[in-house]
């Protein structure tokens, strides 16, 4: 059993970065948006990465944008039906891979998101299995391009979810580097702690990064640790000690990461009682 690392998340905004850095985190994860992929935005993101590195933080993850115009960045979106979205996903991933290789950092891409939008996109395929295979083909391409600097995160969607052993076996067969969001799996499993633990155990050796997030197990609520129904003591024992982690918690104020820090204090306390 190891003590949890302090992983914090923020944008490339200087005020947000400085708020996080006052806590001397082990890991910094950048939240990005479409604005980071203009020429000026991309330059600012690159400079922000270098600034965080200059403060001695070597473990940096850049999270692919979540939204483009009115859509989530669903890799399942067929090119024919969503040409603009498809192209943005391609170009933004390419740019992030280039930045990751230049600055020796990690990038995170979602295998999917959730909700009606992804269901509508999946319905454009003959069946769910065909949609899932389309996602794997695209992720396979990204994995070849990104190598050891790209990882894929689980969703609450039928195309890339953890918690289902057969689907996990198929994901493992692709040898992806995985990011594991605890709340997404917990919600996908309808609040079943045993199923969450089974998934953490099954995927452990392929997980390189965790989003440690609590949840009531019903909807995407991104709760502070200890405020939801996840049983953290067994989760802590099942984490891959080689992986990084951050607290991806909804903040009341984006310029104050107190809920992330409180989550770390909570988990550190859980760890002390286990040791």
The top level CATH class name: Alpha Beta
Can you count the beta strands? 10
| Main β sheet profile | 8 strands, parallel
Helix content range: 40-55%
| Mean pLDDT metric | 96
Q: Quaternary status of these chains?
A: single chain
> Which second-level CATH architecture applies?
Alpha-Beta Barrel
State the end-to-end CA separation: 7 Å
* CATH homologous superfamily (4th level) name: Divalent-metal-dependent TIM barrel enzymes
Q: What overall geometry do the principal axes of the alpha carbons give? A: globular
> What fraction strand?
5-15%
The helix tally amounts to 10
SSE topology string: EHEHEEEHEHHEHEHHEHEH
As a whole number of angstroms, the C-alpha radius of gyration is 18 Å
Structural domain count: 1
The structural class is alpha/beta
Strand order of the largest sheet: 1-2-3-6-7-8-9-10
Low-pLDDT regions = none
CATH fold descriptor: TIM Barrel
Characterise this structure.
It is a single chain. Strand 2 (27-31), helix 2 and strand 3 (59-63) form a beta-alpha-beta unit. The chain has helices at residues 14-21, 39-54, 83-103, 116-122, 128-146, 165-173, 182-188, 193-203, 232-238, 258-274, and strands at 7-10, 27-31, 59-63, 67-68, 71-72, 106-110, 150-153, 178-181, 207-212, 244-247. The chain starts with 6 loop residues before the first strand and ends with a helix. By secondary structure, it is of the alpha/beta class. The chain is 44% helix and 15% strand. The mean pLDDT is 96. It has one domain: TIM Barrel (Alpha-Beta Barrel). The chain has an eight-stranded parallel sheet with strand order 1-2-3-6-7-8-9-10. It has ten helices and ten strands.
């Amino acid at each position: 059993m190891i003590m949890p690392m302090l992983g914090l998340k923020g944008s490339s905004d200087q005020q947000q970065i400085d708020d996080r850095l006052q806590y001397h985190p082990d890991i910094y994860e950048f939240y990005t948006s479409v604005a980071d992929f203009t020429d000026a935005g991309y330059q600012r993101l690159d400079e922000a990465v270098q600034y965080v590195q200059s403060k001695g933080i070597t473990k940096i993850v850049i999270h692919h944008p979540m939204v483009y115009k009115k859509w989530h960045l669903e890799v399942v979106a067929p090119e024919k039906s969503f040409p603009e979205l498809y192209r943005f996903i391609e170009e933004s991933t390419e740019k992030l891979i280039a930045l990751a290789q230049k600055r020796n950092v990690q990038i995170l891409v979602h295998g999917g998101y959730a909700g009606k939008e992804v269901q509508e996109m999946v319905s454009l395929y003959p069946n769910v299995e065909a949609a899932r295979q389309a996602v794997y083909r695209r992720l396979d391409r990204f994995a070849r391009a990104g190598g050891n600097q790209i990882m894929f995160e689980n969703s609450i969607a039928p195309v890339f979810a953890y918690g289902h052993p057969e689907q996990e076996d198929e994901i493992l067969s692709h040898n992806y580097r995985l990011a594991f969001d605890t709340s997404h799996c917990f919600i996908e499993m309808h609040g079943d702690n045993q199923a969450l633990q089974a998934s953490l155990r099954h995927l452990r050796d392929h997980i390189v990064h965790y989003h440690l997030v609590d949840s009531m197990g019903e909807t995407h609520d991104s709760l502070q640790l200890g405020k939801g129904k996840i049983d953290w003591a067994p989760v802590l024992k099942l984490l891959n000690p080689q992986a990084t982690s951050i607290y991806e918690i909804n903040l009341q104020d984006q310029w104050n990461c107190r809920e992330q820090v409180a989550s770390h204090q909570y988990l550190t306390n859980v760890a002390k009682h286990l040791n």
